[in-house]
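re the bet — no i am not wrong, look at it urself. input seq straight from the record:
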Amino acid sequence: MATPKALIPMADYGHDPTETAIPYVAFKKAGFEVQFATESGTVPECDKKMLEGITQKLLGATRDAVAAYKQMSTTPEFNNPNSWSSPDFNLDSYNLIFLPGGHEKGVRQLIDSPIMHKHLASYFPDTIKPSMKTIAAVCHGVMVLSETIGPDGKSIIHECDTTALPGKFEQVAFWGTRVFLGDYYKTYGAGSDNVETSVRKRLDDPDKQYKNSLGTGPFVVEDQKYNYLSARFPPDAQLLAEKTIEVVQSSMV
């Protein structure tokens, strides 16, 4: 089997360290070649509030996730990302596109990128099973896909089963920290749609397609038509990585 090639697109700043580093370590352990991409090739940096200080201790990454992030952040691939705005950049050579989440406002650079939307609109149709191409996303990473509009005027995941950050989780985090963190937990500001609402609006039949779990155990959704997997938040990251590895490896046999 050829070596699977994975890409993790990132904003310059703000992605969740757990949702980025835990899958990265799992992909590398599975023998994947992993590359990163930012808009202009800037070395990315994950959300510091999740990595240090009182916010890390109360709300942020676990000790294992912090260790994984430190491991990832010293690698040549992390420190030499591709530029997704480069004229010669494309997604064609990758077997996996992995989209991490994060609620820090910096992640809007990726969620709202018309250039990345163009690349994903081209790539996603090629993930129809059977295919050697796969997309996986967690939390706000799902919004990168839901906000990517295809030639038909619909989101590229309009017919997919998916999950994302549950609205109830987002509201608890927002209201529970508003006094000392303001609207930190609302990526588009206080009063904006939560992630679940934003994603549901892009689905053909959200009541059937949007899969939810308010449990604390890991939860991952795999679409049946496309090689597309999604998860909710950091505690799902390990399971999402494992299931994504299974899909990629089985698709390349």
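see?? The mean pLDDT is 95. told u. also Residues 132 and 250 are 9 Å apart (CA to CA). so pay up
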